[in-house]
Amino acid sequence: MPEPSRTELLSVRNLKIEATSYPPGEPPKTVTLVEGVNFDVQKGKVLGLIGESGAGKSTIGLTALAYGRGGVRITGGEVRLNGQDLLKLDHTGIRKVRGAKVCYVAQSAAAAFNPAHRLGEQVIEASLKHGIMSRAEAEKRALYLFRVLGLPNPETFGERYPHQVSGGQLQRAMTAMALCPNPELIVFDEPTTALDVTTQIDVLAAIKHAIEETHTAAIYITHDLAVVAQITDDILVLRHGKMVEYGSVKQIIEAPTQEYTRALVNVRGTGREEAADQSGTLLKVDNVTAGYSNGFKVLQNVSLHLPKGQTLAVVGESGSGKSTLARVITGLLPPQEGTVSFDGKPLPRALKGRGNEELRRIQMIYQMADTAMNPRQTVRNIIGRPLTFYFGMHGRQKTERVKELLDQIEMGDRFLDRFPAELSGGQKQRVAIARALAARPELILCDEPTSALDPLVAEGILKLLLKLQEETRVSYMFITHDIAIVRAIADSVAVMHRGRLVRFGPKSKVLSPPFDDYTDLLLKSVPEMEIGWLEKVLKTRRMESAGN
Amino acid sequence: MPGGPAQDPGLMAPKAAGANPQPSGPAGTDTLAATPSLSTLSPANDGILSPWGRFVRKSPLAALVLQRLALSIALLFAVSLMIFGGVEALPGDFATTYLGQSATPQAVENIRKDLGLDQPATTRYFQWLGGALQGDFGTSWASRNSVSEQIGKRLGNSLFLAFFAAIISIPLAIGLGMLAVHYRDRLADKVINVFSLAAISLPEFFVGYLLILFFAVQMGIATFPATVYDSMSLTERLSAIALPTATLVLVVLAHMMRMTRAAILNVMSSAYVETAELKGLSGLRIIARHAAPNAVAPVINVIALNLAYLVVGVVVVEVVFVYPGMGQYMVDAVTVRDMPVVQACGLIFAAFYIFLNMTADILAIIANPRLRHPR
Amino acid sequence: MRLRAIPLSAWIGIAGIALALFCAIFAPFIAPHGESEIVGEIWSPMGGEFLLGTDNLGRDLLSRLIFGARTTIFVALAATILSFSLGMLLSFIAAVTGGLIDQLFSRFNDLMMAIPTLIFALVVLAVLPQHLWILILVMAVLDSTRVYRIGRAVALDVAVMEFVEAARLRGEGTGWIIFREILPNTLSPLLAEFGLRFAFSILFLSTLSFLGLGIQPPAADWGGMVKDNKDGIIFGISAALVPGAAIALLTICINLVVDWLMKRTSSLKGGRGDA
C-alpha cells in the first residue's frame, strides 16, 4: 500500500462499502456496494468519478465526508484528509470536517435547499456555525461567490427563497454554499445532470471558473464522460463498485487502456447516412396547435412530415413541446387546431374516435421502461397482449410469435416467464420495443427511449432500432434532447423551442450552417469528448446567465 | 429524482394533509378531502387575466385562504341542506311516529299542523336555516323546550371537556412523536408503536368503563357519574371531568402521536436535512433550524384533524360518563326521534368539524413558504 | 412471500382473527348455553359454573360472547365488503374516466365526508326504521366515502403510469384497464385498507349498538352487551368489560395484521420511510 505523499489532500485506500437490503418477503441481507477502490486528490486539482448508475460513484464521493446515505456503511479501508483518517474520527470530529473542510453539492439543489429559509442565510450558515468567519465576512464572501458564479443581481440574490429562483441558479447557489466556508475539497454529485443542455453548459462553466478562482480541490461525479473531460484533471472510471481505470484526463480520453473505457469514449461514434429521398409522407402534421384548457398553448402551428421507413428526430429541451407533439399524434391530447394525417388520411383528433386498426399502426416506446410495463405481467403477457388484441392470436401460435419477437430483440425465449422487475434496464426497453413490434406498426413514436439508460446500453438499443428499421421498414419519430443521437440515427430533424418548430428538414441541412439563434445555441451546448472544448465554445457563445 | 422547482405552488398543501397513510381505527379521523382548485394558479398561464386572476397572481396565499373559506361556507350550506332534506326525503311520517300507530287521523292532522309539517318543505327549510343562523333551532318535539336553550347549556360543557382533553393530548402527542422519531426503530419507538396501536383499537366506552371500574369504583379516587352543574367551582368541575378527559386523551393521543411521528419522519428524511447534516451542524440545530420550520405545517394539520375527531369522540364519552353535554343530548334525541334536536346537534357537530378541517388546511397553506413568498 | 418473513406480531393478529372467525362460524356447537337462554342468577361472578359469569338478565356471558362474535363479525364484514365494493367501483371509475364524472363523484364524496361519520349515522338512523339490512347499508354507504378517497388516490397513482397509457393507446376498454392493469398493482395497499375498514366497522358497529342504535336485543352483539351490563360497573361488576375487551382484542389483532401489510407495501415501493 503506497504511503500518501505530502501534496495529497485526500487519499482513499482499499475502500469497502456495504449496505443492508430488505428484499420483500425475505430476511435482510448484506450487499457489498464498493470494494477495493483507491484514489488520491491533490490540492487544487479536480478528480472525476465516472460510471453508470449503480457504479457506486455517489457513495464513494460521500465517503470524503464520512457519510453513508440511507443505511450505507463504510466497512473497510481508509479515507485520509491531510493525513488524518476520517473513518477513525468520532461524531464531533467528523462534524468539524463536514461543511468546513469538505463540502457537498447535490444533484438536485431544488430538494437540497431548505424551502423555509432564504438562500443567503443557508449559504453562509456553515461558515458561521464552524466559526470560520464573522457574519460580515461571510456575507461579503457570499456576494463575491454569487458574482463569480454569474448569478443575477448578486447583491439581492441572497434575500430570495429557493422556490423563487430557477433550477440552474439554484445549482450555482449550492456551489456558492459549498465554496463559502473556504473548504479544501468539494464533492460535486452530478450537479448538472438535472439541467437542460443549454443551462448545463453555463453552470458547468460557472463551477469551473469558481473552483479555479478559489483554488479549491474537487471530486466531480457524473455519468457523462464528455462533461468530466471539460472540468477535471484526473478521471477514475468505476463499474459495479470496482475500479476500471484511473488516470489523467488526457490518458483516459485519448488513450484508454481498458475495453470498458474505450467503449465509453467511443459511444457517440455511430453515424448513419440520411435517406436521399424524403418526399413521401406516412405521417403528416399540419399546422397543429395544442394546449390545455386553461389557455396555455404547449404547441403552436407545428407542421412536419415523415416518409415511410425513415426516422425523424425531434430535438428540444424540456418544455419545448416535443413530448406533447407525440401526445397529439397518438390522440391523447386532441389538437385545438390543425390536423394529423397518417398514410394520406386524416386521423380522428381524439384517441376515442380511432379504430383499432388506426391504433395498431402507430405504437409508442417510452423513456422509462420501468413504468411502461405492468409489473404484474410476465414478458409473455406483455408482448402477447397486442397479438391477441389486434390479431386474435392464442395458444401455441401466440407463444411462437412471442418467441420470434424475443429473438428479434436479441433476447431469446428464456425470458418468456420473467417479470419486468427481473430484467435489467436495457432488457426492459427491449421488451418494450418487442411489444411495439408485436402490433406490426408502421410508425413507432420513441419518447427518449435511451436517455434513462447507461451509455453502452443505450448504444445497443439504438443499434437494435436501426436493425429493426431495416428489417421491417418501420418509421420512427424519435424524441430526444441529445444531438449525438440525432446525428447517429436521423434522416430528418425537427428542432423545437418553447412550443414552436424552429427548424425542420433533412439532417444534413438542419445540422449545418447557417443556423438560427436557437439551433446555434443548442448545438454549441452539447459537450464534446474533447479536452478544452468548453473554453473554445465559451469564446463563441455568450453566457446566458441571467436567463437560467 | 430531479425534483425540479415546484411549478405548482399549491402542490404542498394537500400533500401535507394526505401524504401519511395512518393506520387508524375509530371514527372520523380522515381528513376532509377538500383541495381548493388550483387551476387558476398556474404560473405558466399567459392568458388575459380577470381581476380574480390578477389577485391570485399578486397574492396566492390570500387567494387560497379565501378559496378555502368560501369552500367551507358552501360545504356548510350543502350539509345543512343534506341534514334537512335527507330527513324530508326519507320514509315515514313523523307525526305518526310521534303519536304511535294507533293515533286517529284527526290527531295526526293536528300534530302535523302543530309541528308546522303541513307547510311545503322549502318554506320550512328556509325558516329552519334562517332560525339556525340566528341561533334559534326551534322547539323540541319531546320536551317542548327551546332547543337553543338546551344546547346553550350543554355546548359549553362539551367544549370544556374537549378543551381539556386537547391541552393535555397535544403536547403529549408531539413529545411522544418526537421521542419515537428520535429513537426510531429502537426499543422506545417500538414500545410506543405497540401501545399506540393498541390504543387506537380500543373503543372509547371500553376505556371509559375500565377507568370507572378502577378509579371510581375500586380505588374511589374519581367521581362517577361525571355530573356538572352551574354552581360548581372550577376545581370541582375539573375533578368531575377527570375520567372522561382521560378517556378522550388516551384515544386521541394515539392517533395524534402516530400521525405526528409520520409527519416528522417525512421531514427528517428530506434532502435538505441531509444537506444540513453534511454542513456539520449539530443535531439540535438541524432539528430546530432545518426540520422544525418544515414540520410545523404537517404537525398543525395533524392536530387540527384530531381535534375534529375529538368533537365526535365526545359523543360516546358523554354517554358513558352521563355527562350533560351535546353528545348525550343528541343520542337521547335520536332514540326518541326528536328531529329538531337531532338536526340542530347534527348541524353544530358538522359545523365544528368543517371549521377544524378548514383551519387545518388554512394553517398548512399559511405555513407553506412557497405561498408566503410568491415569486 | 415466505411464511418465515411474517413477523410475530402479525402471527398473533392472524391467530386472534382465526379464533374469532372460528367462534363466529361454529357458535351453536361450542357455546355451552343458548344465545338468550336465562340460566342463572343475575351477574354471577366469573369462574364456577359460568366461566365468564352471567349478564344483567342471568344469561351465560361466554355463550353470548360466542354468539355475539357471530353477529358482530357478520354485520361488520357485510358492511365492509359492501362499502369496499361500492367505494372501489366508484373510485376506479372516477380515476379511469376522469373529467366530469370524476369531479361529480369526488365533490359529492367531499360533501359526505364533511359530516363526521358517527353524527351522520345518528341523523340517518334517527329517521330510518330499525332493520338489520338498513344498519348494514348505512354503515356501508358512510364508510364507502373513505374507501372511495383511498381507492381514487391509489388508482390515480397507477393510472398515470405509462403502462396504463400504453393500454389506452392499444385501444383497451375501461374494464380491461381497471381489472387487468390497475387492480393487480393496487392489491397490497387495498388489502391493508380492507383490514383497516373492517377494524373500523367493528368499532363503529359496537359504538352504535352501545348507543342503542345498532343491533337490537335480544340478539347478542358485543357493543350491545356492553350497554346491557354497563349499570353493573358502579357495583364493581365487570361483566360489561368482557365484551368490550373482546372488541378491543379483535381490533388489535386486525390492526397488527394491517400494520404488517402496510410496512410490506412501503418496502415494496422501495421507500425508506416506514411511515
Report on this structure:
- The complex is a heterotrimer of chains A (548), B (375) and C (275).
- Chain A is α/β, with parallel strands linked by helices.
- In chain A, the strands form 4 sheets. Chain A has a 6-stranded mixed beta sheet with strand order 6-7-8-3-9-10, with helices on both faces.
- The radius of gyration of chain A is 26 Å and the shape is globular.
- Chain B has 375 residues and is mostly helical.
- Chain B contains 16 helices and no strands.
- In chain B, helix 2 (51-58) packs across helix 3 (60-89).
- By secondary structure, chain C is an all-alpha fold.
- Helix content of chain C is 71%, strand content 0%.
- Chain C has helices at residues 8-25, 27-30, 61-97, 99-113, 117-127, 132-159, 162-170, 174-210, 222-229, 241-268.
- In chain C, helix 3 (61-97) packs antiparallel against helix 8.
- At the B-C interface, helix 3, helix 8, helix 9, helix 11 and helix 13 of B face helix 4, helix 5, helix 6, helix 8 and helix 10 of C.
Give a quick set of tags describing it.
heterotrimer, A: alpha/beta, 6-stranded mixed sheet, disordered C terminus, B: 375 residues, mainly alpha, MetI-like fold, 16 helices, flat, disordered N terminus
Task: Please write out the topology.
The complex is a heterotrimer of chains A (548), B (375) and C (275).
Chain A: E1 8-21, E2 29-42, E3 46-50, H1 57-63, E4 72-81, E5 84-85, H2 91-97, E6 102-105, H3 109-112, H4 119-129, H5 135-148, H6 154-157, H7 167-179, E7 185-189, H8 197-214, E8 217-222, H9 225-231, E9 234-239, E10 242-248, H10 249-254, H11 259-265, E11 283-291, E12 297-306, E13 311-315, H12 322-330, E14 337-342, E15 345-346, H13 356-361, E16 362-365, H14 369-372, H15 379-391, H16 395-408, H17 425-438, E17 443-447, H18 455-472, E18 475-480, H19 483-489, E19 492-497, E20 500-506, H20 507-510, H21 517-525, H22 533-540
Parallel strand pairs in A: 3-8, 3-9, 6-7, 7-8, 13-18, 13-19, 16-17, 17-18
Antiparallel strand pairs in A: 1-2, 1-4, 4-5, 9-10, 11-12, 11-14, 14-15, 19-20
Chain B: H1 12-18, H2 51-58, H3 60-89, H4 94-99, H5 105-115, H6 121-133, H7 147-182, H8 187-201, H9 204-218, H10 234-240, H11 242-268, H12 271-278, H13 283-321, H14 326-336, H15 339-366, H16 369-372
Chain C: H1 8-25, H2 27-30, H3 61-97, H4 99-113, H5 117-127, H6 132-159, H7 162-170, H8 174-210, H9 222-229, H10 241-268
Helix pairs in contact in C: 1-3, 1-10, 3-4, 3-6, 3-8, 4-6, 5-6, 6-8, 8-9, 8-10, 9-10
